[in-house]
Amino acid sequence: MSEHRTSSIAKNIFGNSLYQIRARSALPILVRQALASEKISYGDLAKELDMPNARNLNWVLGSIGKTLLELGEKWQEEIPPIQGIVVGQQTGLPGDGVNFIIGKLDPRQKEAIVQEKLGSVFSYPRWLDVLEACELSPAKPLNPPEPPDHRSRTRESEAHKRFKNYIARYPEAVGLKKSLAPGETEHKLPSGDIPDVLFQSARCRIAVEVKSRISSEDDLRRGLFQCIKYRAILRACRSLEGGTYEADALLAIEGSLPKELIPVKNTLGVKVFEIK
Question: What are the pLDDT digits (tens) for 98-110?
Fold first, then answer.
C-alpha cells in the first residue's frame, strides 16, 4: 500500500490500534521539534518511539494528520501539518503522503513548497493547545549539560587521539567525501574554539567533534552542545566571507549514543555518527 493511500485511511489518534497508541506518543515529540524549529528524520523518530521499522511511521503520521484536520474543523482554523517535519535522512524532505505534497514535482519545486509549509509549522502559536485538546502532555524537558570543571582538565587520552586521527583520515566514516581527507586536527577558529577535526574545501567547512568509547554520557551530552557552537561559528565566518559553502558540525562517537540522549540530539538537530 502506498504511503499516500495509508495516510488517507488512517484514523485519528483516539483509539487502541498500535499505530494510534504510537501516534499519541509521537505528537508530543513533533511538537517539541516544532517549538525548536527543527525537522526530524524518520529513523530518528522511530528510535525515540522504540519502533523497529521506520516504514510503519506512515500509519502513525497519517493518524496525526487526520487528528489535526478534525481539530482544525472544530476550531474553524487551519492547523499546519506537523507531520511534514518528519523527513528522509538523505533528501531532507517529507514523504509523498504528507498532504501538502501533491502530484509529481521535481526536487526544486518540492523543496520550495516544503520550506514554505515548514515555516507555517514552526511559527504556529498553538501547538501546546493542540496537545491539551488531545489530552496529551508536552515532551519531557531536556536539561542542558553541567559545565565542565576546567580546573580538573586532563591531557588528551590515547583513545581520543586515536579516534580523532582515524576520523581525520577517513571522512567517509561521517558521511563525507573521501576527497576531503585528511582533515585538519585542532584547527583554531576565530572565536578561539578548537574542534577536533575540520574538513575544508571550496564547497564546505565541516567541523567534527569526536568522542571515544571512554567518554561518559555527560561528555557526550556536552559534545552535542559543542556541535551547536561550532556550527554557529562556521556559519558566522561564512557570512563575513560572503561565502555560499556548506557549514556544519557533526558528532562522531565510538559506540552507540545512549537512549537518553536521542531526544537531545533530535531537538538540537545535530547529526551523530556512531562508529562501532
Answer: 655 555 666 566 6
Cα separation, 87 vs 106, whole angstroms: 17
DSSP string, 142-178: -PPPPPP-GGG--PPPHHHHHHHHHHHH-GGGGT--G
d(CA 217, CA 211): 10
Structure letter (DSSP) for residue 248: E
Query: Is 221's pLDDT higher than 80?
Result: yes
Contact criterion met (CB below 8 Å) for 30 and 57: no
List Cα–Cα distances, 122 to 36, 134, 228, 237, in angstroms. 8, 19, 19, 26
Nine cell digits for residue 261: 540522549
| CA pair distance 179, 90, nearest whole angstrom | 20
β-strands 246-254, 40-41 pairing: unpaired
User: How many CB atoms lie under 10 A from the CB of residue 218?
Assistant: 11
3-state class of 181 per DSSP?
A: coil
Could you give the CA distance from residue 168 to residue 165 in angstroms, rounded to a whole number?
5
Name the amino acid, one letter, at 268: L
Q: d(Cα 208, Cα 191) in Å, to the nearest integer? A: 16
User: Which residues contact residue 38 at a Cβ distance below 8 angstroms, ignoring those fewer than 6 apart?
Assistant: 85, 266, 267, 268, 269
20 CB-contact burial (10 Å; exposed 0-12 / middle 13-18 / buried 19+):
buried
Residue at grid coordinates 498553538: 126
Question: What global pTM score does this model have?
Answer: 0.79
